[in-house]
Design goal:
Rieske Iron-sulfur Protein, alpha+beta, Naphthalene 1,2-dioxygenase Alpha Subunit, Chain A, domain 1
């Protein structure tokens, strides 16, 4: 699978991991067991016991350690075996891989590359469910499709005009006029002003407004989007640049979304969305989440169908359009980072 490994992938919602309850997940085709020990320490290990390859996710937490419940080997959070029932000597090779794991922004992040290169500064700055300024709903969807197709979908918003005609009720401008794309060190930034248009569907208003939206799409596949509704003329007044969201008339929301490749043909899509407290409440959040649920289901139908077509097409080839600039820039960045990783591994060999 051609994905960056020196990156933090979302493995799950932090609040859904109960203390002492091992949780199994597959990321980039690698089976991983995650658990929170009695001290609160988070651990992530290869989900395969060294003895007979039984899944450690069927094991039992004992303090901050994890016992395989097939033949009883006991593992430290660093992956080393510290006890083998009925055997005093523990072989030095009795260990499994340990993955750097961090809880931040309400997500559990797993570093899939070399543990020595894990850098918490590279965790994308998502907005967690406990953020004081936002009222957020959340969820996730499993896809029978490779993660790259979901990433491409999120990098090309021209599909909003067609796929989300019923849910977001997006206008023709998304397909007619490409957004502004700016390369970032580990991603791209998408910005769009829509001038003198009716408010978004969630506001149910015919009043003319200027709407601003912007998102960063970051390695390995994390979308962080915000925006707001302003009085007509605001876009021109700020030179179609970044407005001060504190001066928005309404509609200020935030969504954090993350795409995690499980296997070569399956993915998990995490999302949260909701209004700024100055522009909404729990009822407004629920309206937004209802719209999001419909929209994300629309995406899922299209992308899974796209996956089936690709699998049934000999030598599939795509034809880029003007809207693919963000897709192209991001995928080139992924290719460059993968090559850098390959070179680093070769040098270390």
């Amino acid at each position: 699978m051609n994905y960056v490994r020196e990156a933090w992938y979302v493995a799950g919602w932090s609040h859904e991991l109960a203390t002492g309850m091992p949780y199994a997940v597959t990321i980039l085709g690698e089976p991983i067991v995650i658990y929170r020990g009695a001290s609160g320490r988070l651990a992530a290990l290869e989900d395969r016991c060294v003895h007979r390859l039984a899944p450690l996710s069927l094991g039992r937490c004992e303090g901050d350690r994890l016992r395989c419940m097939y033949h009883g080997l006991l593992f430290d959070p660093d992956g080393s075996v510290v006890e083998i029932p009925g055997q005093d000597k523990i072989p030095p090779q009795a260990r499994v891989r340990s993955y750097p794991a961090v809880e931040r922004h309400s997500w559990i992040w797993i570093w899939m590359g070399s543990a020595q290169r894990a850098d918490e500064a590279l965790i994308p700055p998502a907005v967690g469910l406990d953020h004081p300024d936002y009222i957020l709903g959340h969820g996730h969807l499993d896809y029978a499709a490779e993660a790259r197709l979901i990433n491409d979908n999120l990098l090309d918003f021209s599909h909003l005009t067609f796929v989300h005609l019923q849910s977001f009720q997006a206008g023709p401008e998304f397909a007619a006029i490409p957004g502004r794309i700016t390369p970032l060190e580990r991603g791209i930034r998408y910005e769009r002003w829509t001038e003198n248009s009716t408010g978004p569907a969630s506001l149910k208003s015919d009043e003319l407004v200027d709407r601003y939206m912007s998102y960063d799409f970051l390695i390995p596949g994390v979308l962080l989007m915000t925006g707001g509704v302003f009085s007509p003329g605001t876009a021109q007044a700020c030179g179609h640049g970044i407005p001060d969201l504190a001066e928005a008339d309404g509609g200020v929301t935030f969504t954090s979304q993350a795409v995690t490749p499980l296997t070569a043909r399956t993915s998990r899509y995490f999302f949260s969305w909701g209004p700024h407290r100055a522009h909404g409440d729990e009822a407004h959040r629920d309206v937004l989440m209802g719209i999001a649920g419909q929209a994300f289901a629309e995406d899922k139908v299209m992308i899974e169908a796209q996956q089936r077509v690709i699998e049934n097409t000999a030598n599939p080839v795509i034809m880029p359009t003007a809207h693919d600039r963000g897709v192209t820039l991001f995928n080139r960045l992924v290719e460059r980072l993968i090559k850098e990783e390959e070179c680093a591994r070769a040098d270390a060999a």
